[in-house]
Design goal:
- With about 600 residues, this protein is an all-alpha fold.
- The chain folds into 2 domains: about 190 residues, Orthogonal Bundle (Helix Hairpins); about 260 residues, no CATH class.
- It is built from 11 helices and no strands.
- Helix 1 packs across helix 3, helix 7 crosses helix 8 and helix 8 packs antiparallel against helix 9.
- The longest helix is centred in the first third of the chain and has 161 residues.
- One of its GO terms (biological process) is protein localization to kinetochore.
- Keywords: Coiled coil.
- One of its GO terms (molecular function) is kinetochore binding.
Length: about 600
């Protein structure tokens, strides 16, 4: 019953797997059809884009030609205008300098002439003030002397009346004093008249100097009028000069007009120049269009890189799912093995329980009592079989232990391979993401360095000139390998598609290596169960030992292949993995997995 249930479950599982496989195939065909339609649409869109680019470039070339001609005309006009403005500014500056110099000269002359007059006026004014002060002082002294004289006369009269007789001497003295005072008065009046005469002279001099100053001011005004007349004449001369220059430029243009000179060397040179300018404009337009296309392609490549990074992350998750499925399969196999072993143990227990009853059944079947000799013979056979059974059990136990140890080693190797594969995928995804970040930062901050590196890479890819000697087979092989290496290096550095294919090939190779490990680990488990279930007769050691040695060698070779495939993307085999080139057979005769090689490579 249990076997029937297991078979029905297996049949249902097989049906489910067939249905899933059919669904996957249908999805694959549908995806292929959709991809074909998308490729056709993409090709049509690219053709339309190319046509639109061609039309746009032609229109842009025409517009650029018109723009170039208009720019040339505008530049010529601006140049002429700038020259005229420069000349005007130069004339203005010269005129302003001349007027300033004339003004400074006039001011200097005026200052030179007016300064001594001002100094004379100041000195005369000071002298006049002094004279006025002296005159006032003299007048005060005269008034005081007159008062004193009147007082003295009154006193004299009084004294003369009272003391005519007694004061004769005093009267004489007073008369003398009066005479002295009169003389002083006369001198003072004389000095006062002289001062008045001096003041009159000074006033006359001041009036004459003021008249001279007014005359000088009139002369300055006349000079200013003369300078303004000169400035107006200079402006008129500038206008005339400008008109003459315009006429001269017109004459030069007429002289440079090649059409009026006939078929000459000037016309040929001008035609070549115009043609070269047109070609330059068209090349500039094409360069701008190619630059835009390059920018679009760069953005597409960046998007593809981001998608590849996402696929790498998805591939890591898919690897985890595959590992879980593999572990589940191993768990189911182990459970089935334990069930089968339990069944066999139950059968052995029943057989051991029935073995002691065999002689009685045999005796009853014969209808005779067993002899002592037959009993001894049967006991000897039984003892021999038991001893052989014990030895076989011991050998089976040792073989099972060896097989379990080998299976443990295989599991350890598989775990190591899985962890290495997972680490390699993580490193590749991190490396790819870091490359993307570095490229973005360099394109953002150092675009010139990227251009310089591309130029250096192009310079390094130097073509080797072959010699005239006949190359041998080894030299041809080395030349081909060198060319392949150069091509691989250029593809590695210049094309991002090479990196994408390399990562895809690495993922597929790792997955294929894991599937090979699964397929090769299954026979080992079945052999282990068969060895555990069936005890070989006498020659068990000779049959089991070569199989274990073969499985051990095969596992070691598989581990080496998987390690080489997983670690080849980091080491020196990265260039070969980028284009899917199969490796040569090694010393041990191990061939790598060639499932992911393109059809063209396989045919070659």
């Amino acid at each position: 019953m249990e076997g029937g249930d297991e078979s029905s479950a297996l049949v249902e599982r097989i049906k489910q797997l067939d249905a899933l496989l059919q669904q996957k195939n249908d999805d694959l065909h549908q995806a292929a059809e959709i991809g074909k339609l998308l490729l056709d649409n993409n090709s049509q869109l690219t053709a339309k884009i190319d046509e639109a680019n061609a039309v746009a470039t032609s229109k842009i070339e025409e517009l650029e030609q018109e723009k170039f001609t208009l720019r040339r005309k505008l530049e010529a006009k601006e140049h002429m205008e700038q020259t005229y403005l420069d000349e005007i500014e130069m004339l203005k500056s010269t005129l302003s300098k001349q007027s300033e110099s004339m003004r400074l000269k006039i001011e200097m002359q005026h200052d030179v002439e007016v300064q001594p007059l001002k100094s004379q006026i100041a000195t005369l004014q000071s002298e006049l003030d002094q004279c006025h002060l002296i005159e006032g002082q003299l007048r005060e002294t005269v008034t005081r002397t007159e008062l004193m004289l009147s007082d003295a006369q009154e006193q004299l009269q009084l004294r003369s009346k009272s003391l005519n007789e007694t004061c004769s001497t005093e009267l004489a003295e007073l008369n003398e004093e009066i005479s002295n005072l009169q003389t002083v008065k006369l001198t003072l009046t004389r000095e006062l008249s002289e001062r008045e005469n001096r003041v009159a002279q000074l006033t006359l001099q001041v009036e004459s100097l003021s008249e001279q100053l007014s005359k000088k001011q009139d002369e300055v005004e006349e000079i200013q009028c003369h300078s303004t007349a000169n400035y107006n004449a200079l402006l008129e001369s500038r206008e005339e000069n400008q008109e003459l220059k315009v006429e001269l430029d017109i004459i030069k243009l007429e002289a440079n007009n090649i059409k009026k000179k006939g078929n000459s060397l000037f016309g040929e040179v001008e035609d070549r120049r115009v043609e070269a300018e047109r070609e330059l404009v068209s090349m500039k337009v094409q360069h701008s269009a190619l630059k835009k296309q390059h920018e679009m392609l760069r953005q597409q490549q960046h998007k593809l890189k981001m998608e590849v990074a996402g696929l790498l992350r998805m591939a890591g998750r898919r690897g985890d799912e595959q590992m879980t499925e593999r572990l589940l399969q191993q768990l189911s196999q182990a459970q089935s093995e334990t069930q089968s072993l339990q069944k066999k143990i139950h059968e052995y227990e029943e057989r051991e329980r029935l073995e002691p009853r065999l002689p009685q059944h045999l005796a009853r079947g014969n209808g005779q009592a067993p002899d002592d000799g037959s009993m001894d013979y049967m006991k000897g056979i039984l003892s021999r079989t038991q001893s052989e059974k014990a030895t076989l059990k011991q050998e089976l136990h040792t073989k099972t232990l060896v097989a379990l140890a080998e299976s443990d080693k295989v599991m350890v190797c598989e775990k190591r391979i899985y962890h290495l594969d997972h680490e390699v995928k993580q490193l590749k995804s991190n490396d790819f993401r870091l490359r993307l970040q570095i490229e973005e930062l360099r394109m953002k901050y150092e675009p010139d360095s990227l251009k310089a590196e591309k130029q250096l890479r192009r310079k390094r890819n130097v073509e080797q000139i072959p010699l005239q000697q006949k190359p041998s087979a080894e030299s041809t092989e080395t030349g081909e390998t060198a060319e392949k290496k150069a091509v691989l290096e250029s593809n590695r550095h210049d094309d991002i598609s090479g990196e994408d294919t390399a990562t895809a090939n690495d993922i597929s190779k790792n997955q294929s290596a894991v599937s090979v490990e699964k397929r090769r680990s299954r026979p080992l488990a079945t052999k282990r169960t068969s060895n555990m279930n069936v005890a070989p007769p006498g020659g068990g050691d000779a049959d089991i030992q070569p199989e274990l040695v073969k499985t051990k060698k095969r596992l070691v070779s598989d581990v080496e292949v998987t390690e080489r495939n997983t670690l080849g993307g980091i080491g020196g085999h990265q260039a070969e993995q980028q284009i899917g080139v199969p490796k040569k057979r090694g010393a041990k005769g191990v061939e790598p997995n060639c499932k992911n090689i393109p059809v063209d490579c396989k045919v070659q």
